[in-house]
Design brief:
The chain is about 30% helix and about 10% strand. By secondary structure, the protein is α/β, with parallel strands linked by helices. The structure holds S-adenosylmethionine (SAM) and iron/sulfur cluster (2 copies). One iron/sulfur cluster (SF4) binds near residues 65, 67, 72 and 110.
Length: about 375
């Protein structure tokens, strides 16, 4: 078992290896290779107008969930609640797959509530994509473990953030630790019984103030269950639970250990969690359960709908003003403050150098979003963001 830990070289190398060999390796075509290299160059120079297409796609095949984790959009009244039909999935994949290498089959919701997921995975594998999904492991039906293995799924994340029911249920509200662990064990047993190597099973334990005390126990339990990867380095995100602007949130959610505090102090207007440019804008996008393009799978991005995923060529979708102006926010040496007031401006995921130069202009009041209505293809902003 590999443990992904914050700041560990072993963890960084094994993740790089995974990306290079598991994701990119077997799925490369000339077109995909050229596209990735093109995008790497665009990203290196932080070009606002890009020449390539997204090579990773987050596809929200379900935006409904059986659990109620705090602040999750899947149970927010302003968000849609839909299972994507298989026919729509086919159309979207036909449009995107020639340039994709990596399909992340989840968004805000539980993907296994969409019972067509197994056919979707099979179709994506026929398109030669690395297919990964993330689940709360609380809604499998009898036979699903075998269906998962037989579908050809490459990787599955088990979102289990506790090793005692009390800890687990404080965040995964409505979930059962016993059920999640039982499903995890059954999946690994089934994979062994069928003599399969996939899916790679990753136990994702998002470290917070609530479960910090269980880090040593989860390492032991993960080894016993036989998962391939234990992931301890995914930062607990305050925007994810809609508390990024609350200065008291870190006291409730973030552990005291600096390794798990990337989202500390981010209530400040010019703050950021990661000292790099946003990676989504030069690599990926999300298609939500209504078939609409969103700039990214994060909370702010998921609330912006930029048109039907199959309505326009990919390059046009990715070079519409919302994306181009969003990328400009990451210019290393901006000559003037940005005049555009789109959603990326209020995002605190990556470092936007202009905010340190003109802190007085960091105005994130939602009414500024009015500006984006003037765009050629105005994105739809959900009511809570636009009001
Ligand atoms: C919205 S969930 C949808 C998939 C599935 N329902 C699940 O929970 O795994 C997408 C991803 O967000 C992760 N997530 C949930 N809460 C989070 C938080 N506070 N910070 C960072 N990631 C979080 C989940 O573990 C999951 O991998
Ligand atoms: S994080 Fe996942 S399991 Fe939790 S409510 Fe959201 S979609 Fe459901
Ligand atoms: S800047 Fe933020 S909102 Fe914009 S695409 Fe990146 S992560 Fe999403």
């Amino acid at each position: 078992m590999v443990i992904y830990e914050h700041g560990s070289w072993r963890s960084r190398w094994s993740r790089l290896w995974k990306r290079l060999f598991h994701i990119i390796g077997p799925n490369l075509s000339v077109r995909r290779t050229v596209n990735i290299l093109t995008m790497a160059a665009d990203r290196a120079f932080l070009r606002p107008q890009v020449r390539g297409r997204p090579f990773t796609m987050y596809l929200e095949i379900s935006s409904v969930c059986n659990l109620r984790c705090p602040g999750c959009l899947s149970h927010d009244k302003s968000y849609h609640a839909r299972l994507m039909p298989l026919e729509e999935f086919w159309q979207i994949l036909d449009h995107y797959a020639p340039y994709l290498v990596d399909l992340e089959l989840y968004g805000w919701g539980e993907p296994f509530l969409n019972k067509q997921i197994f056919d979707m995975i099979r179709y994506a594998k026929r398109c030669c994509l690395f297919v990964r999904t993330s689940s709360n492991f609380n809604c499998f039906e009898p036979g699903d473990h075998e269906r998962i293995v037989r579908s050809g799924l490459d990787q599955i994340n088990a979102s289990i953030d506790g090793v005692s029911p009390d800890t687990y249920e404080q965040y995964r509200i409505g979930g059962s630790l016993e059920v999640a662990l039982d499903n995890l064990r059954k999946l690994i047993e089934t994979r062994k019984r069928l003599g399969a190597k996939r899916p790679i099973v990753e136990w994702q334990f998002i470290v917070s103030r609530i479960n910090y005390k269980e880090i040593e126990s989860v390492k032991k339990l993960a080894t016993e269950t036989g998962v391939d990867i234990l992931r301890l380095d995914l930062p607990f995100s305050l925007p994810h639970i809609d508390e990024v602007n609350d200065p008291t949130a870190e006291l409730r959610w973030l552990a005291d250990d600096p390794d798990f505090r990337q989202w500390a102090n981010t209530f400040r207007p010019d703050a950021y969690a990661c000292a790099r440019a946003c990676s989504y804008l030069w690599s990926s996008l999300q298609v939500d359960a209504e078939g609409q393009v969103n700039p990214c799978p994060n909370r702010i991005g998921s609330k912006v709908q930029c048109g039907l995923a199959t309505s326009r060529p990919l390059r046009d979708i990715w070079n519409q003003a919302l994306f181009v102006e969003g990328r400009k926010l990451f210019a290393a040496k901006p000559e003037a403050p940005p005049s555009f007031h789109g959603p990326c401006r209020e995002c605190k995921e990556g470092m936007q150098p202009w905010k340190a130069i003109w802190p007085e202009l960091v105005d994130v009041s939602p009414e500024r979003h009015e500006n984006i209505k003037q765009l050629d293809c105005p994105p739809k902003i959900r009511p809570r963001d636009a009001s």
